[in-house]
Structures are given as C-alpha cells and as structure tokens.
Amino acid sequence: MKHLLEIGDLDRTELEGVLDTAEHFVEVTQREIAKVPALRGRTVATVFYEDSTRTRLSFEGAAKRLSADTLTFSLKASSVSKGESLRDTAKTIEAMGVDAMVVRHPSAGAPHRVASWVDAAVINAGDGWHEHPTQALVDVFTLRSHRGRGLDGLRVGIVGDVKHSRVARSNTLALALLGARVTLIAPPTLLPPSLEGWPVQVSHDLDAVLSELDVVYLLRIQRERISGRGPGELFPSLREYTARWGLTAERAARLAPDALVMHPGPMNRGVEIAHGIADGPASLVTEQVANGVAVRMAVLYRLLGGGGEPAGVPTE
Ligand code: CP
C-alpha cells in the first residue's frame, strides 16, 4: 500500500491488518511513556485546506508517538492566499523532505491528484463529499474492540445527511467489507441521486427500522455545505429534521437494549442527536475519538514503516 486514498484501496485482509496493527498501538498509547521509535527520521506533513479538530490532531499525535517529525500546513497562513496552486503547494511541501502527506480538501479527488504529483505517501483525510477512509477505519475498529468480535451480520443504520457525507460512503464500504449490513436512513433529498454500487438498503423512516438496528450511526447536518440553498430546500426546518430523523431521547428508548450509538463529530447536539444520548451509556463517541490516534498510528506505520505487526517495538 503506497497511499490510502479510499476504502477501495484495501481488501478485507488488508483492512483487518490495519485494525490488528492498531490494537498493538492502543497498548502503546496506554504506556506511561506512550512513544516508540518506529518512524524516527521520517516526516509527516498535515496539509488541511479545511478546518479539523479530530483528524488533524490525531494524525499529528500519531506521528509524534511514532517519533516522526511533523510539519503543519495552515491554509489561512499559507501562500495559497497569494494564488499558489495545489500542485505547487504539494511539491513545495514535498521538497522539504516529507515522507507522508495527510491531505484534507473541500474538492473530491484532491488527495488523488496530490498522490499523482508527489513521491511521498498520501493519506486522504477527507475530500469533499467523496471519502474519509481513516474515519471509517476508526469506526470499524471502535465497533470491533467494543464488541470483542467481528462485524459479520451487524445491522448498522447510517442516519441523516448521506448526500454530503464522505463519512457515510467510507463507512458503508468498510462495514460491508467486514460483513455488516448497512441501511441508509434519510429523507430522499439527503440521499445521493444514485446509490448504484452502494452495498446498502435504504429507508426514509427511522421509526420503522429503529428496533432492528444494532448500531445507529448519526451523521452531522452539514450546515456549511447546504448553506446558500437554505435547509428548506432539503428538509423543512431543523426542528422538523429532528422530529423525523433525530435520535431523540424518546427514540433512543425504543432501541434494542444493547444497541450502540456513534457519531463522527463534530455533533449538532439537539439536532441529529440529543444531548443526553451523546453522553449516555450507549454512546461510543468518546471511544471513537480516543481510538483515532492508535488507528492513525497504524496507517502511518503500515505506509512508512513496513507492513508487519509492530510487536516488540521498544518504548523510548
Ligand atoms: N470526524 C472528523 O473528521 O472531524 P474533524 O473535522 O474535527 O477532523
């Protein structure tokens, strides 16, 4: 694996290999000195053309825990404001001796273009509405760890703004690869125009399928992507959205007793998820964030440090 641009870059064995490697790194992150020399001398650059809290910080934390050096490209303080192109920016960063670039961009396919221009490994940290593969790896890792077994037959409902969601696409592909059964649950206006090739069932009625789900995966209503057209074009109002597709306390009470709730963050509390549910016992939201570092350590390690398991990697 030279790059990680989309879940389709992995087959089931490779995906499970990343998850197995991440298990080793969870143990590393729990050590008193949570650092190993696996990537000493290597340099990882985060190149984000969009804001991020979880993805950027967890990649930078992952690189540091592997003893790699890090470079941070900050869009607002960069020469992009002077008209520098994506290609020139990528080539400039690579010329500083970078081994891996973690790229987030509002345009679908931008990380793929960067990968065609540079010799460094490129990791897609979210491109437009297309994919967010490491979020999906974090999520399937979190489910597998929490359950203590594989995901074959697991019934997962992905609820909400599928149309604008790179997380929905990557998660659907990763979950299906591991044998889970995915149902997309959304109003027709928040689904992509075509779902050809998506290994999913579709429902427009959350209440009708709620009790059949093992996992409710809520998507953020992306106000920034639907602004300009106004939410009224896609659904009548946020209040109406919550009433029909939000995980309210009343709906959560009708879930199966051991059902789990997930959200990639950032959350619109009170819109797609009620406050008490986000922080409640069924919620894996904090586990998802905590696992982000170990999973991204695994991705960096497998791209830069060799494909094997990092058993015996000594603590610094
Ligand atoms: N889930 C996710 O990608 O969050 P950030 O935008 O904070 O990185």
In short:
37% of the residues lie in helices and 15% in strands.
In CATH terms, what is the fold-level topology of the largest domain? Rossmann fold
How far the N terminus sits from the C terminus, by CA atoms, comes to 27 Å
User: CATH homologous superfamily of the largest domain - what is it?
Assistant: Aspartate/ornithine carbamoyltransferase
Mean model confidence by pLDDT = 94
Give the uncertain stretches in residue-range form: none
Task: Give the biggest sheet.
Answer: 5 strands, parallel
Secondary-structure element string: HEHEHEHEHEHEEHEHHHEHH
Q: Bound compounds, please?
A: phosphoric acid mono(formamide)ester
- Number of extended strands: 9
Radius of gyration: 19 Å
Estimate the strand proportion: 5-15%
Give the overall form: globular
Strand order of the largest sheet: 7-6-5-8-9
Q: Architecture of the largest domain in CATH? A: 3-Layer(aba) Sandwich
Number of helices: 12
- Judged by helices, strands and strand pairing, the structural class is alpha/beta
CATH class of the largest domain: Alpha Beta
Number of domains: 2
Helix content: 25-40%
Account of the protein in words:
- With 316 residues, this protein is of the alpha/beta class.
- It has 2 domains: 7-131 and 291-304, Aspartate/ornithine carbamoyltransferase (Rossmann fold); 133-288, Rossmann fold.
- It is 37% helix and 15% strand.
- It has 12 helices and 9 strands.
- It has helices at 12-29, 54-65, 86-94, 110-117, 133-147, 166-177, 206-209, 223-226, 238-245, 249-252, 275-278, 285-304; strands spanning 43-48, 69-74, 100-105, 121-127, 155-159, 181-185, 200-203, 215-218, 260-262.
- It has a 5-stranded parallel beta sheet. Strands 2-1-3-4 form a 4-stranded parallel beta sheet, with helices on both faces.
- Helix 5 (133-147) crosses helix 6 and helix 5 packs across helix 12 (285-304).
- The relative contact order is 0.18.
- The mean pLDDT is 94.
